[in-house]
Design brief:
heterodimer, A: Nucleotidyltransferase, domain 5, 2 domains, 7-stranded mixed beta sheet, 5-stranded mixed beta sheet, B: Alpha-Beta Plaits, two-stranded antiparallel ribbon, 4 strands
């Protein structure tokens, strides 16, 4: 059953500066220099703001790889798995262009086409650059980007610049060959397979050289790093400083995904991934020096849609064949839709900048809250329908996006929900550390379980802006003395 | 004298462009080596190129039918450890 959305507080109805995005200017994009912000403001992977509105897709044209990573297994092609390196069907450049044009016609919010594998795009230069050439010709409004391990990067920089690529992501897990040897068992280099430290050193040198060359040419570089506890976790803050000093504009530290069933070295050998807390701690440690990306969903090499969703199944080759598409009017539609979104974002930004900092006492303890949203930056999702929660931090400095946490969906709306109980328990556990959950609606059972776990369920801010709602809840907690209370005390109170 | 690709090939394309003899071609259900063209890279490279980039252990055989990259040689996963993990998964 659903609880009705109760008594919306007067303050929230009146708006004004009860509203909280007052001071929420800590969005990472607002910190960027103007010329970079221009380039990334509609790129869902490079801008936290943009990922609420704009969609991207990857085309899987690049199967070959020139290195082996201990978190990757080239044998697995599972439709139900969502992680990098996994795809359902490999495409030729012609098929990739057709698919891109179809998606961009059906999803007018689409701004970006990336090539990210399933191998390494630059280890498949003909297929990768042929795809880019055709797309530049047929859909000049779509931004092109590429994600690489960096081994062939220095040799590819000219070609990338020629292909109008203005965003490149390099995966850099280490700058120390000793550590590299524990992550990369081998590379293929100058006609040989080179193992261990020696191979890792070559890879590291190529990555750093490639990064410098891209920056020299004015191509934006984001660095991805996989956080592997006990291997490179202590070292990544140094990586972050180094890549920033060389001109990377954004660093994305992602958690290792390692399960035995993936058949990867780390999965089989029992290497664990980081906990959400460990990941957030490391991101905080890096953030003093660097813009951090916190909204990455570690998507598949054939992902389609907004970052939190994957609409790939709507665009299989046979379905695309059956679509009738007027490309010219689709491009015009994209222009209109995207201009509308940009205007909307701009007006939100300027309202935010006009507002004073929230009247929150300095020194108040920051609080984490989870939010159920399906996009547009508003609280618009039922607790039970959320595939993930976005985690925000409220503090006297304002509201800040921190991370997202995936859930087990306990309510899929059909009769096959046999494991409702346990999936719900897992979801509640995944929200550890949060003190409130904001959603459009919530059922009675999860409500109770959340309260027992010391997390306050809140359905009072449905259809409101996330940042305003999070700040409103934070102020309410402050006014009621809840922020001074420790989570343990709150649990005790809830039981009384 | 020729190398051979067997059914564990995952069709990743990596070997095809590195072959100096254009002996490798895409086929169903997996890539194949034309034994008439394959030189095992003799005279061109110190080591066979396909076997030096192939990521799949056991997918390439030498002319004696032996795996050039035996289990554990590329991933570093000890074969007994892999067998144990797979057995545990099957029992669930």
């Amino acid at each position: 059953m659903d609880l009705p959305v109760l008594n919306i507080p007067e303050t929230a109805k009146e708006g004004g500066c009860s509203a909280s995005s007052c001071g929420s200017s800590d969005s990472q994009v607002n910190h960027l220099p103007d010329h970079i912000r221009e380039k990334v403001q509609n790129h869902p992977c490079y801008s936290e703001d943009a990922h609420h509105y704009f969609a991207r897709m990857h085309v899987a044209v690049a199967p070959a790889c020139n290195i082996q990573c201990h978190y990757c297994n080239r044998k697995y092609d599972c439709a139900n798995e969502s992680r990098p390196g996994v795809v359902s069907e490999l495409l030729t450049p012609e098929q990739a262009v057709k698919k891109t044009m179809a998606v961009a016609a059906k999803i007018p919010q689409m701004t970006v086409l990336g090539i990210a594998g399933p191998g390494d795009p630059l280890a498949n230069p003909e297929r990768t650059f042929e795809t880019f050439r055709m797309l530049t010709r047929d859909a000049p409004d779509i931004k092109l980007c590429v994600s690489t391990n960096g081994l062939q990067l220095p040799e590819s920089v000219d070609e990338l610049a020629k292909a109008n690529i203005d965003h490149v992501t390099i995966t850099i897990n280490t700058i120390d060959a000793e550590i590299g040897a524990k992550i990369y068992p081998w590379i293929f280099w100058k006609n040989r397979r080179i193992k261990g430290r020696k191979g890792a050193q070559i890879l590291i040198d190529q990555q750093q050289k490639g990064l410098e060359m891209l920056v020299q040419r004015g191509i934006l570089v984001k660095v991805n790093s996989v956080m592997i506890p006990g291997i490179n976790d202590e070292h990544l803050a140094e990586v972050s400083r180094t890549v920033k000093s060389k001109g990377a504009f954004l660093h994305n530290v992602m958690p290792l995904i390692a399960e035995a069933e993936h058949g990867t070295f780390y999965g089989v050998m029992g290497q664990r991934g980081p906990t959400p807390d460990e990941l957030m701690d490391l991101q905080e440690r890096c953030s003093g020096d660097m813009n951090m990306m916190r909204h990455c969903r570690q998507c598949r090499a054939d992902a389609v849609g907004l970052l939190g969703e994957d609409r790939g199944a709507e665009f299989t080759l046979d379905k695309i064949d059956a679509m009738e598409i007027d490309y010219a009017s689709a491009m015009e539609m994209r222009r209109q839709v995207q201009e509308g979104i940009m205007a909307d974002m701009e007006s939100k930004r300027s309202t935010q900048q006009k507002k004073a900092k929230p009247a929150v006492p300095d020194g108040a303890r920051p609080v984490l809250m989870a939010v159920a949203t399906s996009g547009q930056g508003i609280i618009n999702q039922h607790f039970g329908h959320a595939k993930e929660f976005q985690i925000y931090q409220a503090s006297p400095e304002g509201v800040r996006f921190m991370s997202h946490r995936k859930t087990e969906q306990y309510c899929s709306g059909d009769s096959t929900c046999g494991d409702a109980e346990s999936a719900l328990a897992i979801t509640v556990r995944s929200l550890a550390g949060c003190e409130a959950v904001l959603c459009s609606k919530i059922g009675y059972e999860p409500w109770e379980m959340l309260e027992e776990a010391g997390i306050v369920p809140n359905g009072e801010h449905a259809m409101e802006s996330i940042e305003e709602a999070v700040m409103a809840v934070y102020r309410e907690m402050l006014e009621n003395g809840k922020v001074d209370e420790t989570p343990a005390a709150r649990r005790a109170n809830a039981e009384m | 004298m020729a190398l051979k690709i067997i059914e564990s090939c995952v069709n990743c394309f990596a070997c095809e462009p590195v072959c100096p003899s254009q002996a490798i071609f895409a086929a169903e259900p997996h890539f194949l080596i034309d034994p008439k063209k394959c030189t095992e890279c003799e005279g061109a490279h110190a080591v066979p190129q396909c076997a030096s980039i192939c990521p799949i252990e056991g997918a390439l055989l030498d002319s004696l039918g032996e795996a050039i990259n035996p289990p554990g040689s590329l991933t570093g996963i000890p074969p007994e450890k892999m067998a144990q993990a797979m057995a545990e998964l099957r029992s669930h």
